[in-house]
Amino acid sequence: MELVEVQRLMDELYGATDRERGVPSTVAWLCEELGELAQAVRKGTREQQLHEFGDVLAWLASLANQLDISLDDAMQRYVTDPP
Protein backbone atom coordinates (compact mmCIF):
# COMPACT_ATOMS: atom_id res chain seq x y z
CA MET A 1 0.00 0.00 0.00
CA GLU A 2 1.34 3.43 -0.95
CA LEU A 3 1.27 6.30 1.55
CA VAL A 4 -1.34 8.15 -0.50
CA GLU A 5 -3.53 5.04 -0.24
CA VAL A 6 -3.02 4.94 3.53
CA GLN A 7 -4.18 8.53 3.78
CA ARG A 8 -7.15 7.88 1.51
CA LEU A 9 -8.20 4.81 3.52
CA MET A 10 -7.96 6.67 6.81
CA ASP A 11 -10.03 9.52 5.39
CA GLU A 12 -12.68 7.11 4.14
CA LEU A 13 -12.84 5.19 7.42
CA TYR A 14 -12.42 7.96 10.00
CA GLY A 15 -12.09 11.33 8.24
CA ALA A 16 -15.28 12.94 9.52
CA THR A 17 -14.74 11.68 13.07
CA ASP A 18 -11.08 12.70 13.04
CA ARG A 19 -11.86 16.23 11.82
CA GLU A 20 -14.53 16.56 14.50
CA ARG A 21 -12.03 15.39 17.14
CA GLY A 22 -9.54 17.97 15.92
CA VAL A 23 -5.79 18.30 15.64
CA PRO A 24 -4.88 18.63 19.35
CA SER A 25 -6.72 15.42 20.25
CA THR A 26 -5.29 13.61 17.26
CA VAL A 27 -1.77 14.60 18.32
CA ALA A 28 -2.53 13.26 21.81
CA TRP A 29 -3.75 9.94 20.36
CA LEU A 30 -0.67 9.72 18.12
CA CYS A 31 1.59 10.25 21.14
CA GLU A 32 -0.27 7.56 23.06
CA GLU A 33 0.17 5.15 20.16
CA LEU A 34 3.88 5.97 19.97
CA GLY A 35 4.16 5.03 23.63
CA GLU A 36 2.39 1.75 22.97
CA LEU A 37 4.76 1.09 20.05
CA ALA A 38 7.77 1.77 22.28
CA GLN A 39 6.43 -0.70 24.83
CA ALA A 40 5.80 -3.32 22.14
CA VAL A 41 9.31 -2.88 20.75
CA ARG A 42 10.85 -3.30 24.20
CA LYS A 43 8.74 -6.13 25.54
CA GLY A 44 6.14 -7.19 23.01
CA THR A 45 5.75 -9.95 20.51
CA ARG A 46 6.23 -9.51 16.79
CA GLU A 47 2.42 -9.54 16.44
CA GLN A 48 2.06 -6.73 19.02
CA GLN A 49 4.77 -4.71 17.28
CA LEU A 50 3.04 -5.10 13.92
CA HIS A 51 -0.26 -3.99 15.46
CA GLU A 52 1.29 -0.89 17.04
CA PHE A 53 3.17 0.09 13.87
CA GLY A 54 -0.20 0.03 12.10
CA ASP A 55 -1.80 2.20 14.77
CA VAL A 56 1.00 4.78 14.63
CA LEU A 57 0.85 4.94 10.85
CA ALA A 58 -2.94 5.30 10.95
CA TRP A 59 -2.86 8.18 13.43
CA LEU A 60 -0.01 9.87 11.55
CA ALA A 61 -2.05 9.66 8.34
CA SER A 62 -5.08 11.07 10.14
CA LEU A 63 -3.07 14.01 11.42
CA ALA A 64 -1.57 14.66 8.00
CA ASN A 65 -5.05 14.58 6.47
CA GLN A 66 -6.36 17.12 8.95
CA LEU A 67 -3.42 19.42 8.17
CA ASP A 68 -3.79 18.83 4.40
CA ILE A 69 -0.26 17.43 4.18
CA SER A 70 0.73 14.64 1.84
CA LEU A 71 2.92 12.03 3.51
CA ASP A 72 4.39 11.32 0.07
CA ASP A 73 5.44 14.98 -0.15
CA ALA A 74 6.78 14.89 3.40
CA MET A 75 8.99 11.91 2.56
CA GLN A 76 10.25 13.40 -0.70
CA ARG A 77 13.16 15.16 1.03
CA TYR A 78 14.58 11.74 1.93
CA VAL A 79 14.66 10.99 -1.80
CA THR A 80 16.07 14.30 -3.02
CA ASP A 81 18.23 15.51 -0.12
CA PRO A 82 18.41 13.15 2.87
CA PRO A 83 19.34 14.80 6.17
Could you describe the 3D structure shown?
The protein has 83 residues and is mainly alpha-helical. The protein has one domain: MazG-like (Helix Hairpins, Orthogonal Bundle), CATH 1.10.287.1080. The protein is built from four helices and no strands. Helix 1 crosses helix 3 and helix 2 runs antiparallel to helix 3. The longest helix has 21 residues. The two termini are 25 Å apart.
CATH superfamily: MazG-like
Span from first to last CA? Answer: 25 Å
CATH class: Mainly Alpha
Number of strands: 0
* Uncertain parts: none
Per CATH, which architecture?
Answer: Orthogonal Bundle
Number of domains: 1
Helix content: over 70%
* CATH-assigned fold name: Helix Hairpins
- pLDDT averaged over residues: 97
* Largest sheet, strands/sense/barrel: none
- The tally of helices reads 4
Q: Assembly state here? A: single chain
